[in-house]
Amino acid sequence: MTIKQITDKIIERSKASRAEYLAMVDEMRNAPPAPDRLSCSNWAHVVAAESEADKKSMPAGQGANIGIVTAYNDMLSAHQPFANYPNVIKLTARDMGATAQVAGGVPAMCDGVTQGQPGMELSLFSRDVIALATAVSLSHDVYDGIMCLGVCDKIVPGLVIGALQFGHLPAMFVPAGPMPSGIPNKEKALARQKFATGEIDKAKLLESESASYHSAGTCTFYGTANTNQTLMEALGLQLAGTSFVNPGTALRTELTKESVRRLLDQTGKGSNYRPLAEVVTEKSIVNAMVMMMATGGSTNLTLHLIAMAAAAGIQINWHDMDEISRITPLLARVYPNGQADVNHFERAGGLAFLVNQLRSNGLLNEDVVNVMGEGLDAYARKPALNDQGSIEWGNTVTENGDATILSTVEEPFAAEGGMRTVTGNIGTGVVKISAVDEQYQVIEAPCKIFETQEALKNAFDAGELASDHIAVVRFQGPSANGMPELHKLTPYLGILQDRGFKVALVTDGRMSGASGKVLTAMHVSPEAKNGGLLAYLREGDVIRVNCHTGELQALVEESVLSAREPAAEPVTPNTLGRGLFEKMRAVVGDSTHGASFIGK
User: Fold this and answer.
1) Residue 408, exposed/middle/buried by CB under 10 A (0-12, 13-18, 19+)?
2) Which range has highest mean pLDDT (73-77, 388-392, 464-468)?
3) Which domains are assigned to the chain?
4) Among 48, 248, 311, 506, which is most buried by a count of CB atoms within 10 Å?
5) Which pTM was predicted?
């Protein structure tokens, strides 16, 4: 199977749904312009707070108007820099004879704060809430282009899904960049394990965590937030080389200004009209999957990419991802797939080096359009400031600055990419193999059953997990409790593995983008609540997880399984806002379809 063959298969599969989406886009594209559609009363509300000059020019359609959708809040470190972006965007637009308005704000929760806490049960659903809020923000229909300010886990996918409902407009995503490097990730992980075993107290653990997460900017490990950034470049929705430029730098500010200039040029009033629907295509979606596999990206994107593609009428699935992973070499080692962070990765050559490597070996679709223009040339080059303080993209990045972080297609870190799909009588799940040593990628062992993360922790504290086993944590799917991440379990299982036990995790929940060395078959579908075999497993049943053969199997006779009653689902509390999502849990789609409640 080749990238072209996989792309062609997706194009054929998506023919009807893509045509339906493009018909919707054409309907909006062919509508009369806002000055002709809106009444004087409508316009009076639009411009009431604007300058006297804008009150005249905007209703007359003089100059493009950018709608800014921002995920700013100052608790989330990755989004705190966005506080000043709207003013920069507005002033740059004004210099270009255009205007910009904050169309709306969307929620932006931090999974680092809610990890292991009840609020994590709202995390995945927040993606679709953000998509809805983006659509509401843009529904005033007075904008010629969309500028999205977001970085982190569910936020970027939600912004993409919402913006795609306005696919007749061009869209530009603008990141904030990663915080400077803190303590090494290995040191941080070790401190967590020491806390789990009681070797250090909470004060020492907080000291370690604060030395890692220490300033404004995105967390520096290669989790979901930074995988989002990689995919935004792969999709062509972000200027080339903007992902991993630190906040507060001159280059960062100038890239934001350049984003405004290019977006204005791509509106219907510019010289290079380039609507979002022409950027997000089957070919660019495949490019995003390739980049995810080549970098060992977050498994959360196996859900988000499906949902984003569906919003553009494109049908992809885990089987496509598995096929792409099997023909895409792993070219990056960034924590949790290595010890480097994204700042080290960027200095070593970053995404530009990877794009050049993948292009040179026919692993990317070249005939795409993006916010840089046509093709992928720009994405193999890095931006820099020239002597006049303007942005220039340099030569193609062909040199690897650190062979422990980046590698070539000829000498990859692994012959295959970062993900594997596993399937069998238990269901279908996803494994992040790029972070799991070869010796741990196959396990056959009796299972221990848990319905909550706390139950597994208690069993660990009681010394009940000191054996070879597969931990099954069930009733964690989207219909049960919103599919929280179970990253809290990583230190306990990691300790057991370090002590020589063969351990793994099987769950219908998610794992953090920072999930690492312990074999985890996650996102298992059907989930326990919806009739999945997970609900019929009993303590001691032998399970086999084989990443090489793609097997997820309970070694129990079918007659025995069919004679069992399903386990009782634990009660999901409705505190901390969870009650508001009860109806969403009732209609949400399964994880193989992106775990979305939109359109249900």
Assistant:
1) middle
2) 464-468
3) 18-180+215-396 (3.40.50.2300), 187-212 (no CATH), 419-593 (3.50.30.80)
4) 506
5) 0.95
